[in-house]
Write a structure and sequence with these properties.
- This protein starts with 7 loop residues before the first helix and ends in a 12-residue tail after the last strand.
- The chain folds into three domains: 44 residues, 434 Repressor (Amino-terminal Domain), CATH 1.10.260.40; 93 residues, Rossmann fold (3-Layer(aba) Sandwich); 136 residues, 3-Layer(aba) Sandwich (Rossmann fold), CATH 3.40.50.
- The chain is elongated.
- It is 44% helix and 16% strand.
- The protein is of the alpha/beta class.
- Strand 6, helix 9 and strand 7 form a beta-alpha-beta unit.
- Helix 1 crosses helix 3 and helix 5 crosses helix 12.
- The strands form three sheets. The chain has a six-stranded parallel sheet with strand order 2-1-3-4-5-11, with helices on both faces. A four-stranded parallel sheet has the order 7-6-8-9, sandwiched between helices. Strands 10-12 form a two-stranded antiparallel ribbon.
């Protein structure tokens, strides 16, 4: 049999105070005397009482709730980013509600609608699929920060990397290491300002400057091996693969083993994100660092500023830094 949860009435009876006093303590109201506060807190601890946050939020002008929406939780970069954002929220006294969604604009809109129904004080949207019209409507309702997207309406703040220059950096690394041709393994996300488009544009721009022909292969989970097989059949070895993110690059490294090829020796491979797994021994993936911890901190801080009344738009561009490791042939392996 499940025991009934203790109520404020139970706490008041145990502490020998009024229910109103208990209510004031849960709201950290300064009008409560130190003695009464100690009695109430002791009673709460003894009974295992927890304040009803939802009820308190309904009565308050500010709830302290922050809605966070993201897709692609299997991507290690997203997992690390969301943990950093969660930690920063809690350090600022905010309560994060994390809502995973499919890579689908309609599913995302439903999730955002539910978060708004919860009366969140703000939203952090990571790589949203929604178009600018939807995002503008959301941004006019509640403070909103978009992370890892290069463009958006004036009603929202942006925090992102210089994806164009980041892609140029890893392609330049592959070219400098002597790999030819340089092939891009990308993802198809037809969203204005999306990182997928900016990185492809960066890839194309540096190849145009150096006189090499671009080749873009769009891949999705489960298709990397087939795409790699086509490239291996055509070129054998000596080519370079510039991957949209670390997740794709890690899958490429796994499939190269099947073809008897070694990254950094037979084939150059680069990722993007500098997720923690990319630096593990035996992987040593060349990638782009997005200053993830700073990105998370800035996103939450911008949201707090919006919640405090700032109205002017902020567009924070994080530096993209090349992290050269063994898979691009510069260290660890000799070609």
């Amino acid at each position: 049999m499940i025991e009934r949860r203790p109520t404020q009435v139970d706490v008041a009876r145990e502490a020998g105070v009024s229910r109103q006093t208990v209510s004031l303590v849960t709201r950290d109201d300064p009008r409560v005397s130190a003695h009464s506060r100690e009695l109430v807190l002791a009673a709460m601890k003894k009974l295992g009482y927890r304040p009803n946050v939802a009820a308190r939020a309904l009565a308050a002008r500010c709830t302290g709730f922050v809605g966070i929406s993201l897709s692609d939780l299997v991507n290690p970069f997203h997992g690390e980013l969301i943990e950093l954002i969660r930690s920063r929220c809690e350090s600022q006294g905010l309560i994060p509600f994390i809502t995973p969604v499919a890579q689908d604009a309609a599913d995302e809109r439903v999730a955002i609608g539910r978060l708004l129904e919860m009366n969140v004080d703000g939203l952090i949207l990571i790589s949203p699929m929604s178009d600018d019209a939807v995002l503008d409507q959301v941004g006019r309702q509640v403070p909103t920060v978009i992370v890892t997207r290069n463009a958006g309406p004036d009603s929202v703040d942006l925090v992102h990397t210089d994806d164009h220059e980041g892609a140029r950096a890893v392609v330049g690394e592959l070219i400098g290491s002597g790999y030819r041709p340089i092939i891009y393994f990308g993802v198809d996300r037809p969203v204005a300002g999306d990182s997928s488009r900016a990185r492809i544009e960066g890839y194309r721009s540096i190849l145009a400057e150096t006189g090499y022909e671009p080749r873009v292969e769009m891949v999705s989970p489960g298709e990397v091996g087939r795409a790699l097989g086509r490239v291996v059949q055509e070129f054998g070895n000596g080519f370079g693969l510039c991957c949209h993110n670390d997740l794709i690059a890690l899958e490429v490294i796994g499939h190269l083993e099947v073809f008897g090829l070694r990254p950094g020796r037979d084939v150059g491979v680069t990722g993007y994100d500098n997720s923690s797994i990319s630096g593990y021994p035996g992987i040593s993936l060349t990638t782009v660092d997005q200053s993830t911890s700073t990105m998370a901190r800035r996103a939450v801080d911008l949201l707090v500023e919006r919640m405090d009344g700032r109205t002017e738009r902020a567009d924070v561009v994080m530096p993209s830094q090349l992290v050269a490791r063994a898979t691009s042939g510069r260290t660890g392996y000799s070609r």
